[in-house]
Amino acid sequence: MSGEFAGPAMKRLLLGMICALAVAGCSKEEPATPQPAAKPAAERAPGDAKAGQKFADAECKSCHGEDGGSVAPGIPHLAGQRENYLLSALKAYKEGKRAHAALKVIAEHMSEADVRNVSAYYASLPSVGLGASRDATHTSPYERGKARATTCTSCHGHDGNSATAGVPSLAGQQAKYLILALQEYVRGDRKVSPTHAVMRALSPLEMEAVALYFASQTPGERAAPATGDPSAGAQLS
Known about the structure:
The N and C termini lie far apart (122 Å). The protein has eleven helices and no strands. With 237 residues, it is mostly helical. Helix 5 packs antiparallel against helix 10.
C-alpha cells in the first residue's frame, strides 16, 4: 500500500518542483540593455591664423616680434608654441589667474574667437632657432620706456625727478601704481590737461615700459620745505 502511494506522490512532488523552478526562472528580471556611450563633446571651432596675424600685428608684435620671436630678454618666443598651451595661457590672463598688467588688459578685451585665432597664428609659425636672439638689434622694454618717456620729462624731469613746484616726481615710484595712474588718464578717470592728453596714445605695453623706466630711476635728494613743521607732520602721517 505504501509503495502504491509513494509512486504517484513522488511524481506530484517532482512535478511541483519543476513548476516552481520554471516560475522562478520567469520572474527574474532581464538584464538592463547597456546604454550607448555618450558622444564626445564637439570639438572647438578651429582658429583662423590670418585673422590671428591681424590681431597680433596690432597688439602683440611690439614685444613678441613680427614673426613670434621675442624682442628682449624676459619676453617669451611664441612662434611654433603648442596651440593648446597658448589657448590656456591667454585664458588664464583673461580670467586673472596669471598676473601681467599689459597682457591682462589686452586679454580682457579679446573675444573667444580672438583667443583661438591668435593661438592658431603663433602655433603655425616656424619655431625660433637657438641663434635667433634679437637682443643686439631690438631695444629692451626699459629702453623703449626711456624713449617714450621723453614726452613726460618736460614736467617730471629727464630722470623722473621733478624740478617744478606742484608736479610730482616719478623716480623710484611703484611701477604698478604708475601703470594704474596711466590707465586712469587714458580712461578719463582723471581729468587731463592738454599735456596729459598725449598719454592717451600709449598702448598698454608702452605704459608698462614707461612705468618700468621711471620706477628704476633713483629719487633725488630734496631740501626740507621752507614752510610747515616736518616734526608735527610726522605725527599725523
